Amino acid sequence: MESSEAIRPEKMGPIVMKETWNTPGSLVTWERADNIYICRGERGGIVIVFLNDEMFRMKVFQNRIPDLTTTAAIMLESCVPHLFPVEETEEQLIFTTSTIRLILDKHSFGIKVENMTGKVIMQQNLISWSPRGASHTEYDMQSESHFYGLGEKSSFLDKRGEHYTNWNTDVFAPHLPEIEALYVTIPLLIHMHGDLSYGLFLDNTGRSDFDMRSHGVAFTIGCDTGAYDVYFINGPEMKDVVKRYTALTGRIALPPKWSIGYHQSRYSYMNQQEVLQLARTFREKKIPCDVIYLDIHYMDEYRVFTFDPVNFPEPQKMIAELAELGVRIVPIVDPGVKKDPKFKVYKEGVLDKHFCSRLEGDIFFGEVWPGISAFPDFSDSRTSEWWGDLHKYYTDLGIQGIWNDMNEPAVFNESKTMDLDVMHFNNGRPVTHEEYHNLYGMMMSKATYEGMAEHLQGERPFVLTRAGYAGIQRYAAVWTGDNRSFWEHMAMAIPMTLNMGLSGLAFAGPDIGGFAHHTSAQLLVRWTQMGVFFPYCRNHSSIGTMRQEPWSFGEEVENILREFIGLRYRWMPHLYNLFHEAEDCGLPVIRPLILEYPRDPHLTNLCDQFLLGENVLVAPVYRPDTDHRSIYLPEGCWIDYWDGAVQEGGRHILDAAPLHIMPMYVKAGTFVAEGPLKQYAQEEVEEMVTFHLYGAEARKGFEAGYTLYEDDGHSFNYRKGSYSELVVTAAGEAGCLKINWTYAYREYEPERERLRFALCYPFFQPARISGLSEISMEQLEEGQQGWGRNGKNGAIIVQVQDVSEGGQLVIEAEE
Ligand code: MIG
């Protein structure tokens, strides 16, 4: 007897139906409910929420009004909704804030944002969604449009003409321009056209795509699943967008000073003797270093929260010995927990239901380093707390930093990640992995950061992560994963890290020297020269490749690396200041020139040079056997860091760059705070700050200023007010220069006796300085007050007592 199986659908031939995408149709009604505006069309609509004058959220809905919970990216404090007047005309709904007008076209549901002079900032056209839950929107793009942001992406700085997808992926294959998704997802696109910029942040943790390539006069943003939930972030300058985006998703937590030192890593340092020997070698060779990483081989058969009993039998002793040398270790912690009923973490995880499972309850197992493993469900705070707490194992040993790897999550299977139907419990709002994927890594690092912070009792933890989502900057530094020892990858690290900075990730950087493939003497030199000015500074390389510790290529290379790593340490006060600025207002530590000079047409895609902070221009050499390079100097007067040569900006120059030199320029009228050379960030040496002033002039109109932020560098006491701000200003007059310094705030007392001012390549010759006598460099070194000339570069150095009342210097020019 036949059953209905006889007429199963597939026997009837394929049913091909064209998917029709829906649009909301025309506006039918609108209403205000508390702070939200609900605009309903014929087949769906948009909810609009203003966060302030410059930012609003638009969430598309189809049938029911969407719920307005956000992902973990959004900082709730930034989400205080505002009400603004609404005006309705025949054709439009118009919302007006103090700076922008949002205009909804009743017929097309298009949304336009104008500034108060009526210039169109943004035009969003078609909103549509597929019957299977994908959504898609189209935005106008102009001939002069340029695009930035999007976090960690390959290719150049300007994303015009590119297409990217967001799906956190472990990409060991070479990071080529055609690779659209890497380890991190930051769905923030900054659109700059003419003198206007704005940002669009798509808060969606499933797969999304940004297409600035295929549609001619439009760019599109789409997502495969979940809600179409976009934040408009106004400029008009790109800097405003970055500041506002980081107010929305959070800013970096000021890192402990040691974590912005030089880090040395290798996959793997194999045993305790090797690690200790490595640390001693740094000290013997006087190459500064703060951190050594322990890659996967430190563990007992790759079980997290263990040490290998044979190769690392005495971790506590090793860590204590390293501490005496001023070196910390940062061990790797992957999410995969080895399936082993005798392994405590696994047992606990299973019994207490901490692992990601299918809806029916069966645990998802995937293969990673430890073999078959289970993966904690960090979406649930109960599990995150458990995981965080496990880190007591490390903090008890004296560890303050953790390295999260493989947290895309990476799995050795065909899809390279967890199955899409695995569930995340998400504090009672379960979602599939398909919807949650891009958030997994960030939630792991959040759990890690919070657990470490708790157990370090007031000390700042350091977390490094490979994967992340918007907001990851609050918990971890991000490194750019498995690059290769290719010159092309060194060059690509610049735009990649710069765009990460524009996307909130101020603490980021690549593996210096390259991870896979074999580095070379020159590549290591050039990459290190550049890398010491990147926010995150770690040399890391893969098993089976040429060694790339700084001494691996003989004395000449070693000397150059020592010099440049030392430079990072001497510039630590300035660097730390920039990290403070990043915590304070979200601006990145290194910046594309376009951020500071948005009207200069030469800069829209310039990314083989960058700025450290606002005024220090770094131009790395990124090709082999090259001893010259062309450099573009933006408007203003620029001073060669190495020899003081003065260059007029607004033009290209050709600069010599022998192997021991990486071209650097400081804008005239800039202060840079330097400290003493240290072998590690918190080494106790005689403290001193030298304010280097470049290109000082004794004429009316010359001005320079700097605020030096200082605190203890390792605790959270600064958040209770224990920090200081030393404000330094310089003002020129006819025939003299006055320098003032004063503590604007001084609840933390820097431990030092003296301050120095160094006039680097001033445009005048000082004759008298505030009644101080001219003394020798030796006398200056001994601590005497006075002024002298540095024989090496001719800088004028003035030394004064560092007193809390501050002081003034009058520097009179030679007639
Ligand atoms: O699939 O832990 O990107 O830095 O050395 C390799 C071993 C796993 C990938 C990381 C790399 C690390 C390596 N890990």
TrEMBL record:
Residue ranges of every copy of the Glycoside hydrolase family 31 TIM barrel domain listed in the record: 253-578
Pfam families according to UniProt: DUF5110, Gal_mutarotas_2, Glyco_hydro_31_2nd, Glyco_hydro_31_3rd
SUPFAM superfamilies, alphabetized: (Trans)glycosidases, Galactose mutarotase-like, Glycosyl hydrolase domain
Residue ranges annotated for the DUF5110 domain, each copy included: 690-752
Domain Glycoside hydrolase family 31 N-terminal: 47-211
Swiss-Prot/TrEMBL keywords: Glycosidase, Hydrolase
PROSITE patterns to which the protein is assigned, alphabetical: GLYCOSYL_HYDROL_F31_1
Database matches in InterPro entries: DUF5110, Gal_mutarotase_sf_dom, GH, Glyco_hydro_31_AS, Glyco_hydro_31_C, Glyco_hydro_31_N_dom, Glyco_hydro_31_TIM, Glyco_hydro_b
GO MF terms, alphabetically ordered: carbohydrate binding; hydrolase activity, hydrolyzing O-glycosyl compounds
GO terms under biological process: carbohydrate metabolic process
Sequence ranges assigned to domain Glycosyl hydrolase family 31 C-terminal in this UniProt record: 586-670
Family of the protein in this entry: Belongs to the glycosyl hydrolase 31 family.
Designated name of the protein: Alpha-glucosidase
Annotated source species: Paenibacillus donghaensis
